[in-house]
Write a structure and sequence with these properties.
5 strands; five-stranded parallel beta sheet
Length: about 200
């Protein structure tokens, strides 16, 4: 598929700069097919999706390639691979890649805005070094559902951000902060303002 070719071109340019990349896909067949495509073109990569085992602590899993082992290897500066192909279900809140990866390519997406936003958060966090550039590449096929999904996700993300930014901070009321707690209020307000700029 044309998306596989274009994504590979982007991956090659990212790897040439010594950087790493996460490729996002929804369908397992596409994840597996794309892994075969990259391997056939000499690009080492790993996959993270539902069938990728989670570490259980069992001593018999030394030879099992778990999600935790893949992510630990990906974090190493001399990792044997620079590309992870993942779906949003396997790489959610508990996985953080922002210290080692600032590139994400989306081959396909669903209408689920929560998964989309979480996937972006895996490589972008508050506290990154100044000047760190995070890149998201959305591959959209002409005359397909891709454009509709893209527009709906942007609308949902914008609406969620507007709601969050327009709402009062319930922490003040819930914590029972008195007017004398201006220092705490100022710290929280500063944190909220910084996160809005991300």
């Amino acid at each position: 598929p044309a998306k596989f070719v274009k994504a590979r071109e982007i991956i090659e340019s990212i790897i040439a700069k010594g950087e790493k990349v996460v490729v996002r896909a929804i369908y397992i067949k596409n994840i597996i097919d794309y892994q075969h495509n990259l391997l056939a073109n000499g690009i080492p990569c790993k996959t993270l999706y539902g069938a990728t085992p989670v570490a259980s602590g069992d001593e018999n899993e030394e030879d099992v390639e778990t999600r935790e082992k893949i992510i630990a290897e990906f974090h190493k500066p001399d990792s044997s691979f620079k590309v992870i192909i993942a779906n949003p279900f396997a790489v959610a809140e508990s996985i953080s890649l922002h210290k080692v990866c600032h590139n994400a390519i989306y081959i396909e997406r669903s209408f689920n805005a929560a998964h989309f936003i979480q996937s972006k958060d895996r490589i972008h966090r508050y506290g990154l070094k100044p000047g760190t550039e995070t890149n998201y590449y959305y591959l959209l096929s002409e005359d397909s559902v891709d454009g509709i999904i893209h527009n709906r996700l942007i609308e949902k993300e914008t609406r969620l951000r507007d709601i969050i930014e327009s709402m009062p901070i319930p922490l003040f009321e819930n914590a029972g902060l008195e007017t004398g707690d201006d220092d705490i209020k100022a710290l929280i307000a500063e944190y909220v303002n910084r996160t809005k700029k991300m």
